[in-house]
Amino acid sequence: MPxxxxxxxxxxxxxxxxxERVRQxxxxxxxxSENFTSPDVMEATGSVLTxxxxxxxxxxxxxxxxxxxxxxxxxxxxxxxxLFGADHANVQPHSGASANMAVYLGLIKPGDTVLGLSLDHxxxxxxxxxxxxxxxLYDFQSFRVSDTDERLDFDQIRDLAKKVKPKLIVAGTTSxxxxxxxxxxxxxxxxxxxxxxxxxxHIAGLVAGGAHPxxxxxADVVTFTTHKTLRGPRGGCILTTSAHAAAIDKAVFPGSQGxxxxxxxxxxxxxxxxxxxxxxxxxxxxxxxxxxxxxxALSKQGFRLVSGGTDTHMMVVDxxxxxxxxxxxxxxxxxDEAGITLNKNxxxxxxxxxxxxxxxxxxxxxxxTQGMKEAEMPLIAEYIATTLRGRNDPSVVKxxxxxxxxxxxxxxxxxxxx
Length: 418
Ligand SMILES: *Cc1c(COP(=O)(O)O)cnc(C)c1O
What we know:
alpha/beta, Aspartate Aminotransferase, domain 2, Aspartate Aminotransferase, domain 1, 7-stranded mixed beta sheet, 4-stranded antiparallel beta sheet, binds pyridoxal-5'-phosphate
C-alpha cells in the first residue's frame, strides 16, 4: 500500500484528536449548538466517499463513477423529505451559512429588503449582520424581542414589515429560548406579499422529534444545520415547496458551491435514518425536559433566565443578579477550567459588548445524548454556581473539575478504546 508506514504516521494530529476525545467525554458539553454524533454517522463521514467528485445532482452529474453516490444522495433526500414532510430537499449545503446564502441567491436579488431577528436579540450572523455577506449584499431590517417579556412581538414585526415591505421574511433564531410558531410569520408574509424562510438550524432535531412545531407546511423554504439538535454530521440542508425547488437547486450548485461533500451527505443520510426511529422522539422530548429542569435549578441558584425560562433545548442566563461584577467572558473561561463548556452570550439590550457580555447560553442536546435526565440537572446547576462563586479560588475550581469528571464517567458516550 502507498501509505506512510506505522513508523512515520502522523502521530501529532492523532494524539491531538485523542486529547480532544478526552476533553469532550470527561467534561460537560453545554454549548447549545453542539451534540455528540453517533459512531455510524462518524463512520460514514470518514469513509471513501471523501474521494469522490460529484458535481451536479443524482443522475445529472458532470463526472463518471457516480452510480453509488447517486443512490446515497437519493436516500438522504428521500429520508429527509419523509422526516419533515417536505416536497423537495437539497442535502448538499456544506453548512447552515451556505444553506442560507443559497436561499438568498436563489430567491431574491442583491439590494432587496429582508426582515430578520437582530443578532444581539437572538438572531444569526447570516440573518443580516453587517459583517456577513447577508448584511453586505441585502438590505436586512431587524426586529427585536420586546423589552417587557423578552419574547418576539408579532405586532412589532407586522408594523416593520408593512413599513419596509420585505421580499423575504426570515424566521429562526440562534439564542432564543422560546417556542416559535410558524403561523404568525406566514400571516405577516402573506399580508405584505413576502416569501417566508424558516431557519431551524438549532431546533431541527426538536422539530424532527415532534417537540417543536414543524414550519414546513407554512414556509416557502426551511433551512437547517444537521449537526445541532438533529445530531448528524456538520452540514446544512434546504427544504422547499416544489415551486422553489429548481431555483434553490441552481443556487446551491452551480450558484454557490462546487463539488458536494458526499461523505457528509452519507453522514446526513445515516442521521436522518436515526432521527426517523421512534426513540428519537423520546430523545427530543428529553432534551426539552432537561432544559426546563436545568433552567429551574439555575433560578434556584440565583441566576435570571432571559424571558423567564425555556421551552426549547437552550436557555440564556443573565449573570448580573447572581453577581453584578461577573461577565459572560469570565464565566466561560473559569467554567472551562472546571470542565464545563458553554459560551458567553449577549442578553437582550446588554450593556456589555459581544466580546464581554452579561450572559451565557446553555444547551442540553449533548448531555441528553449521553443519557442524563432531570435528576442530573440540579447537579450541573450546582457545579456552575459553585465554580462561579469560587472563581478566584483554584481549589474550588479543581474540586468541581473532579466532580464533573465523575458525573461524565457515569454517562459514557463513545467506547473508550476508540
Ligand atoms: C448555527 C446556525 C447557522 C449556521 O450554521 P453553520 O453550519 O455554523 O454555518 C445558521 N442559522 C442559525 C439560526 C444557526 O443557529
